[in-house]
Every structure is written in structure tokens, then in C-alpha cells.
Amino acid sequence: MATNRTFTMIKPDAVEKGHIGGILNMIAEGGFKIVSLKLTQLTIADAQAFYAVHAARPFFGELVEFMTRGPIVAAILEKDNAVEDFRNLIGATNPADAAEGTIRKKYATSIGENAVHGSDSDENAAIEGAFHFAGREQF
Fold first, then answer.
1. Is the pTM value of this prediction over 0.90?
2. Given phi > 0 = left and psi -120 to 50 = alpha, else beta, which region is 87?
3. Which of 15, 74, 90, 135 falls 20 to 30 Å from 103 in CA-CA distance?
């Protein structure tokens, strides 16, 4: 049976507030298998490279500063239809617009501090997963 992978990060705001366990529990309850997982911290260069698509946007500097202010949890998740299902689980970028029962509704506080990242396509999931995990770290 074909499976699908997506990438997520639990962002510094959620890590600082002690929400790692709660978020990982919601991921597991959502039917996702964790195939790679680590606590790490992005350097400025890492954050600039990871978010390069947003480099011309006015919020880029704030985004880099936010994503480097503390540790993150990076993970590769596996499930059929992983990207779309995970996007549904995390909810809208703005937690005020996120549906009840989503990660962002429960744990995010603002558009900027929205607790988690989720890949927006299969292609980006593969790129983002490879950015954070060597092949030998993906199971």
C-alpha cells in the first residue's frame, strides 16, 4: 500500500510553553506514524534557507528571529494523504480562524506564533524533511 509523508516543526513558541507532548499526542491520535523526530535549534542561516521562499516579504526578518529564538521539534510523519490530512489537523494559519479540534486552535496564540509548521505539498514535504534529516535518520 502506498504511503505518503509530510514534514512538521513544533515551533519555538509551543516548545517554550511545554506543548510538545500535547501536539505529538494529537499527531498520533490523527493516525500519523512518526518516522523521524528530533529536538534541535535553527541557526540564522538555517532559518533563512528554510524560509527562503519568503525572503522578499516584509515579515521575513521577524520570522527568522522567531524561528531561531529557541529549540524546535522537527518530524517527518507518515500516513496516506499525509500532507492534506496534516494541514487539516493543524488548522488555519491564524488560530482565530482555525477550526475547533485543530492544533493551532488549541496551542497557537497568533498568526506569527502559530505553534506548528506543516508542509503544503508532497514536493515541499520531501524537501523540508531532507533539510532536517539525513537519509539514515528517516525510517
1. yes
2. alpha
3. 135
